[in-house]
Amino acid sequence: MSTSSLSPSLFGKRVLLGISAGIAAYKSAHLARLLKKAGAEVRVVMTEGAQAFITPLTLQALTGEPVRTSLLDPEAEAGMGHIELAKWADIILIAPATADLMARLAHGHADDLLTTLCLATEARCLMAPAMNQAMWRHPATLANAERLETLDWTLLGPDAGDQACGDIGPGRMLEPETILGRLSASLDAGVPLLTDRDATARQLAGLRVVITAGPTREALDPVRYLSNHSSGKMGYALAAACVARGAEVTLVSGPVTLDTPPGVTRVDVLSATEMLAAVEAQQPCDLFIGCAAVADYRAAEIAEHKLKKGDGDDGLSLTLVRNPDIVATIAARADRPFTVGFAAETRELENHAGDKLARKRLDLIVANDVSDRDIGFGSDDNAATLLWQEDRDIRRLALSRQPKPALAGAILDHIATRLP
Ligand code: C5P
């Protein structure tokens, strides 16, 4: 054992390492070694399913202790009963923690040895969740995560990135070194472990974010205008989610009927030209999210007086001119922020969004299908696909249908991983 890896606070601590049925279980062997190296006493409990991923014998060899797998094992119980084992532990660390195990623990189940120990213990309890990104994002899992924190569990991670199943997104187990580092650093400092909720609260700390939201209104005459059905809900949800992550947020808003989220500075505008001027006045910033449904055209001339029907005319021709492209203008600046656009499409969603990503020189585009009446414009829910360029490839991440505030959080979690 190298003395340099000893952690003053983990030294002599009794750590019960719980392993559940995830592919990341193969990393638990390394975690067990790291804990031993740090000077902890380690005993391992595996769920039934975990044994399909890694054998108890491997963990027994690494820890020098028998590995417990069953609640109803008379021989093992005769050695150290499960209540005794629950009392023995100073720390229970579950890595990986599957969605199912999280659900069972969140609801107080005691249907196997590991869940029973967790219910019977007074030890400090931590877990490193690991699962497919869609499973992690599922509202049921997120609700369980929240509930576990109220039950004094500390959640470490999950990390975002490539997953064993080929997806990309949040749900990777933190690397064993990171788990050990976070555990021992907080114990050494005698401070409570940072939960990921704390980490989320600081994700965009100190960053200046500018967001456009809502429709624009392009006047034709003093009483009429061209506009669209944008409600502004998505942009407002993004603004609130940025504030929750510690950012300083300016929301440049077209005409909507929403309340300004607490902590957000709101600048009201009507037309695309006004919106561009307001956004430019906020530059430079760190992150710009163009969520507004900006009208592509405006009247070449705004009539000074109300347009009148002519006697006998059966139509009216308007001359429209192109509006400036706000998001492309900001992305073209020398001091450009990380620039995110939205693409509301009714067909060939990813093709059109991919074109816009390149044409407008965006860092990321959020594509959503507005032909589906249940999501998008005006609705409280939305689903989206994030597209960005990495090396020469266009990478994508599908975010399932969920309330706009939750989707805003998921979009920002991803943006935070891509910010320079
Ligand atoms: O309208 P379009 O599909 O091109 O919009 C894609 C993105 O470009 C959106 O993020 C929208 O806010 C932005 N946009 C803009 N200025 C425009 C038109 C669109 O910033 N004039």
Write down the CATH class of the largest domain: Alpha Beta
Give the end-to-end Cα distance, rounded to a whole number of Å: 38 Å
- Determine the fraction of residues in helical runs and give it as a percent range: 25-40%
Number of strand segments: 19
Q: What is the assigned CATH homologous superfamily of the largest domain?
A: Flavin prenyltransferase-like
Q: Determine Rg (CA atoms, Å).
A: 27 Å
**Main β sheet profile:** 8 strands, mixed
CATH level 3 topology of the largest domain = Rossmann fold
Detail the poorly predicted runs: none
Which whole number gives the mean pLDDT? Answer: 90
Helix/strand structural class: alpha/beta
Strand percentage, roughly?
15-25%
